[in-house]
Amino acid sequence: MADKVLSNWYHKVVIYLIFLDFFWSVAALWVDMPKLPDIPIWAWPAVVICPIYPILLALVWLKIYRKQKLNKYLLAFASIPSAIFGVLALVYYQMLMAQNGFDWRDFGQIFWVLFYSGQGWWLILKYKFRGLPILAVCGYLTVKFILDYKFLTFGYLEVGDIAAENRVLLFGLALFLLAVLSIFALIKKTKGLNG
């Protein structure tokens, strides 16, 4: 009986996460849309983060809900960057507000990013990862972080608003988190829910 109640509760949470992630992906695209013309089109897949990762998470949750086998690349691309950007949001928005003053919008964005970051962390802790998908994520995010640094975007589209020395720290932290989290995902011993 307790297993059935837990299973029903879990499935309801997964359904809510699917809908919330789809909703937030569309909302984030609407917020980012006015800023995209300032970025070369070829860089969009690497620069834009808030519309991309929630939709990937929604697809992961949809597979889990349907009890389908998870694609290891989808799992890696949905969870690892989401987890990293949650930590970076805590640092980035603090830097931004320390320099420019408190802003309710920036403060609220911390929680929005933490919402999908928490999902990424949960998936990393719960599922088994393979080396090649992690390597693909590392390559993609390394290129993304270099483009963010070069074009002053960081995906939040406002890195130009923080001091140059803080940009270097943010770039270094991003690469450090990528290395540590990727190694953790690769070596942890969790078998995962889907074997």
How would you summarize what this structure contains?
The chain has 195 residues and is mostly helical. It contains seven helices and no strands.
Task: Provide an overview of this structure.
By secondary structure, the chain is mainly alpha-helical. It has one domain (2-187). The protein is built from 7 helices and no strands. Helix 4 (72-100) runs antiparallel to helix 7. The longest helix has 31 residues, at 2-32. The two termini are 24 Å apart. The mean pLDDT is 85.
Strand count, sense and barrel status of the largest sheet are: none
Radius of gyration from the CA trace? 17 Å
Helix and strand content put the structural class at mainly alpha
Shape: globular
Average of pLDDT: 85
Tell me the strand percentage band: under 5%
What is the H/E string? HHHHHHH
Termini, distance in Å? 24 Å
As a percent range, the share of helical residues equals over 70%
Uncertain segments are none
Total E-strand runs: 0
Number of domains: 1
Number of helices: 7
Attribute tags:
mainly alpha
Task: Please describe the topology of this protein.
Layout: H1 2-32, H2 44-47, H3 52-65, H4 72-100, H5 104-126, H6 131-151, H7 164-187
